[in-house]
Design brief:
With about 270 residues, this protein is an alpha/beta fold. The chain has twelve helices and seven strands. Bound molecules: guanosine-5'-triphosphate and magnesium ion (MG). Magnesium ion binds next to helix 1. The site of magnesium ion has 5 residues, from helix 1.
């Protein structure tokens, strides 16, 4: 079992920009896990979610509705998101009590698309600390369309690093919706993620100017700290990469039952 010594299961927060595929990943991963007889508990922490397709054991919308916050405080959708995040965080202990009472092998948490809101507000980092205790990690989703251009790719590397830095949790990057990319494109992006010098060359080839210069400087800084993003492709449509998500959790939180070890043997998790 994952999280052998803990009464409550370890937590994985799924983070990424709006529409990156967070909710779909939670749905697909929960469904996939049932096939390998692992109990994955899905949690929704996005008060703005219209609907979710996974079985949420805890749903923040039962506590706070974005529409009600908008009406009650006369706010627009963005202001309401900020207030809703703070209102949820103010109830962090209650939420944590509820979550820690759940039993399962792994908890996977869907988060709001407003990454900056989730990662930068003090209240949210407090919530993450309380929920995750000392067994938590982040899966950061790279948007596939943005990843196709070198500067788009670098901007996501930066965002992922900032989220990791802000939340202080082990983070693994995944390339979301990989099924939407042509084989060649996919290979190119994966190569960038392994070899920053190739990414740097691609940046030079992209329309120059200040933006490219900025990206190259950022890249060099990351190179200095040997920070390669090490992307793993993922698709909630085809279920590619689901085993890698599980392997990531397994590597961090401990082994799982023998029945499940077989499938993951070949997949080696390299920590960034
Ligand atoms: N082809 C394909 N489409 C996907 C995949 N994952 C998600 N999508 C589609 O991408 C869109 C956004 O997916 P969501 O899962 O709602 O993304 P999200 O990150 O939760 O979005 P927000 O919560 O609004 O930030 C939906 O139309 C999904 O059907 C995938 O792996 N492959
Ligand atoms: Mg979502």
């Amino acid at each position: 079992m994952v999280g052998l010594d803990s009464s409550s299961p370890p937590v994985i927060f799924v983070v990424g920009t709006a529409g990156a595929g967070k909710s779909s990943l939670v749905t697909s991963f929960q469904r996939w896990s049932r096939f390998i007889e692992t109990e994955v508990i899905a949690i929704n922490l996005d008060p703005g979610a219209e609907r979710v397709h996974y079985d949420a054991e805890f749903d923040v919308r039962d506590l706070i509705s974005l529409t009600e916050v908008m009406n009650e405080y006369d706010l627009g959708p963005n202001g309401a998101q900020i207030l809703a995040a703070d209102l949820v965080a103010a109830q962090a202990m209650e939420v944590a009590d509820e979550l820690h009472a759940l039993s399962g092998e792994l908890m996977v948490v869907d988060t709001p698309g407003q990454v900056e809101l989730f990662a930068f507000r003090e209240a949210s980092s407090h919530l993450i600390e309380v929920l995750g205790q000392d067994q938590a990690a982040i899966i950061y989703l790279f948007d596939p369309m943005l990843s196709r251009s070198p500067s788009g790719f670098v901007s996501q590397m930066l965002l992922s690093s900032i989220v990791e830095f802000r939340l202080g949790l082990p983070t693994k990057n995944f390339l979301s919706k990989a099924d939407l990319l042509e084989e060649e494109e996919l290979e190119k992006i994966l190569e960038w993620s392994e070899r920053l010098e190739i990414l740097e060359l691609a940046l030079y080839d992209e329309a120059g100017g200040q933006r490219t210069e900025f990206a190259i400087n950022q890249l060099r800084m990351m190179q200095q700290f040997s920070q390669t993003p090490g992307l793993t492709p993922l698709s909630s449509e085809t279920e590619d990469g689901m085993a890698d998500v599980m392997t990531f959790a397994q590597a961090l939180f401990g082994g799982m039952s023998d029945a499940r070890d077989g499938f993951a043997q070949d997949i080696e998790y390299e920590r960034n």
